[in-house]
Fold these 4 entries.
Entry 1:
Amino acid sequence: MSRRLPRWVRALALHGGLALAVALPLSAQRTHVLLVIGLSGEPQFKRAFEASAQSARDAAKNRWGVSDSSLIVLTEDSVRTALSSGRSTRENIAQAFLRLSSRVQPGDVLFVMLMGHGSGEGAQSKVNLPGPDATAAEYASWLAGFGKQQVVFVNAATGSGDFVPVLTAPNRVVVTATKTSNERNESVFLQYFAGALGMDAADADKDGRLSVFEVFRFARTEVGKAYTSSNRMQTEHALVSDSLLASRVAFGKTAASADPRIAALLAERQALESEVASLRTKKASMTAAAYEAELERLLLALAEKTQAIRAAGGSK
């Protein structure tokens, strides 16, 4: 939708420090998280997958403010642990989506991340699970009920690239560790992506929030460094389905300022961001002209507010 906005509006938004578009604030939405660890096969993979899931879980709880009732972690273990909410069977994954569907509201964010070993092709691509595997087509069917939310689906398993064309849909960002199902060698993307979810270093624009694209870009860069430092040919190439939407969806809270003038301006900008989030939920009930006119007004106001914050000595 923002691609149809006049160029001068997009340019001003960029100049004002908005990362390609407005990053949606958590004050205007809630975040719900589903983390799924598939079969590890070997102890070192089990440790690595669980460490990454713990990193993502900690980020969700401590940085994003996700409530326990909106945070589900499924692992390969048949016995529940401090990390696990249950076993990562196909049936339990389906139930997790059903449970979350009863909690999400229009405009909320659903974050899903798969970890493990992948295989298959096209709609039959999968991540290995205890018992029957769920296919990419099945994940697409489970996500179909979240059309009024922003969905971030991360398949950080090997051979995950074919999930992108199967799952791509409006208001949905799909991230995969590889560009095709043929990149099946051991992948390091997961550890860098999961780690970045809670790292200030990944916050490129230093606004106190992490957009999906910031996390993706940081992880992709670190993957390249890892292969270069070990003098290996890179055998994994991460993909993101929609960099523009990935730049809008962000996690974390905007940092407060000790300067009351800047704090007031930040609050005013946050209110405008909330208006953008609310407007997005009304798009289907508005004419295209009315929607774009209101969005243009809000983006211009946001850009001007960001300029005012910088002029007052703020860094956001």
Note: The domain at 26-251 is CATH 3.40.50.1460 (Rossmann fold).
Entry 2:
Amino acid sequence: MITDSPRLGLSVSAVLGAALIWSSSFAVTKVALAEVPPMTLGALRFALAALILGVAVHTGPDRRRLPSPRERLFIGSAGLLGITAYFALENVGVDLATASDATLIVASYPILTLVLSGRAEFSPVRLTGMLLTVGGVCLVVRGNGTHSLWGDVFLIAGGVAWAAYNILARRDRSGASPIVVTYYQTLAGAGGFVLLSLSEVDRWVVPSGANVLRIAFLAGLCSVAGFLLYNYGLRRLEASVAVNLLNVVPVAGLVWAVVLAGERLALVQVLGGAVVIAGVTLGLHRKKTRGSLRRTDTEGHLESAQ
């Protein structure tokens, strides 16, 4: 256990900083999508993120411990699922629905990941949390028009893709550092997005200065800085503590949706969000054992880790 209060405070601040960065991504994405098509936005965001990570990997100490070509192929396949497939569904969902809907629905992803991975321990408390989470998502979706409803469907499908990514990523045996794994996943994900963006050629325009800044924010802060901050915090915090700190994401995300995207929240959305957060908190509960909460539980909560 860490008893150094200043260092512990830095770790908590790092995780909270990552959460606040990630919570803003939906609102920033929503505003950018008014000008940049969904697949093109993904291509620009992750190509820039891959460039930043590539410089860090190939100039840092990790350059001597890169995975083999076969291991890179496996890591890349996870990137196509966790970055290309997931964020393509998320971008389309945010485009059709609202940033606030995305924030609240994505809050349910940890439970979805636990269920689909088959690693959930179905204690009465956890089962209650899972049911509450589902009910909260239903409240968020309830009352939306058909246009927003389809967006919510895409966001929920994105949750399935994210859960599948977590299951696949856990099978990585390369032993590479997190930043190296993230680099190769992001590189593959960016490549997938570039191919998808070709379907939007007729919608391509030169981004405005404001959108260039938004894309840089999504790439540099949401996809790189947030990840580094979170992993710094995990070095000195129990995974269960980090997960609880990440519950600030849907709350802060609603604030960003109002401030940045100019959205108005319905009372049923606020109620649904509160139920989702309560459900996630209960759903991640585990009986105390010798070890702390498995990191796999934490991984399921990294909705916007990139």
Note: The two ends are 29 Å apart (CA to CA).
Entry 3:
Amino acid sequence: MGAEKCFDREAPPKVMRYQVLLSLMLSSQTKDQVTSAAMMRLREHGLTVDNILGTEEETLGQLIYPVGFWKSKARYIKQTTAVLKRDYGGDIPKTVAELVKLPGVGPKMAHLIMAIAWQNVSGIGVDTHVHRISNRLKWVKKETKLPEETRRALESWLPRELWSEINWLLVGFGQQTCLPVNPRCSECLNRDICPASRKR
């Protein structure tokens, strides 16, 4: 049910890419089931650049509620959609540098958008789960404080053909097993090779 599953695969390419962008914007700090439900409501409403531009921010908020930070996200979606219409002919940017200039889009999201919407693996999408687990497994030479540091550290040794897999492998693992607080080390299949498990 992740963001990569929430868009309409039958939509025209521009619309599909726009829906990928919005699904990732909604997914931040939000459970997959909640993001998926919000995307279904948006798609039923009509999830195109022109339709969202014509939708009041308050209505948009009602459609995406209860995603995390829904008020801010409704505002970001309106602002970003206006930029896409004005500067990109209703499509989304093709580079990470341009994507991160959009309201509500950070580096992690930009790399995931590039991979899903443009089939261009530009970098590893490092969110809180990838960041935490990479540090616990000692996949970084020295502990990193910020996700961007973790991204650079992982990209320095991980073969590029595996970059697109890391996020979706570790997010579910981080949500279910390798939790931020009280990780389920006793149930984890990695417990024998995980330095953090041995400490517990």
Note: The chain has two domains: 3-117, 128-199.
Entry 4:
Amino acid sequence: MYVNFGGFVPISTVDWRGRAACTVFLRGCPARCFYCHNVALQGGEDLRPVDEVVAMIRSSRPVAGAVVFSGGEPTLQGPALIRLAAAARGMGLSVGLHTNGIFPGVIEALLRERLVDMIALDIKTTWERYDDLLELTAADAVKRSLALCKEAKADGSLGTCEIVTTLFRGREGDLPTIAEAARGLDLVLQQGVTAGYVPLSRQEIEAAAAPLGQKVRIRTREDGEVGYDPEQNTSP
């Protein structure tokens, strides 16, 4: 079996909060979000034997207790991803997944086989705008992935699940709808940075988050990741 390989980071402290992990990037993504930060991994081909990537993961075991699969969109390559996750699990590593949720069948298989411990699921906008933003029919698939994550978190088969929303100036009004859809899971608000947009500051993201009445984590280039509690109206 081959995998369309996108890259490997032997040790990362930013892809899984609180964990030292190696990160495997899988190439290819059918979505075309205008702000994608990994455009180079949307297409192209670099086929590698799965065993070669397994060896990369194994090489990080002395320093990393986990592996994170990212992309591109890793669930685009479902069989290869499942094989890699099973191999990592066999090494005693925890497994994390960054996904846009457009292939819920793969997420369901990973959860069913207990091959994933953490999922970071992008919820990009309101359901009404979803297909236009991604330039493909995706809203129903992402809704299914979100439901699977909620079910797994509730029954204890998924340890950690965070919903990641990239927030742009002028779209702050989408946040209450997204937060309601994600209720019960950790919510991360990420500063949108792309050409033609003035990024929201941390304080502006806090102001947008305040009416939600829930704790969130906020990520900006200036301040990294900070927690925000509207009841205290402060960030650590």
Note: The mean pLDDT is 94.
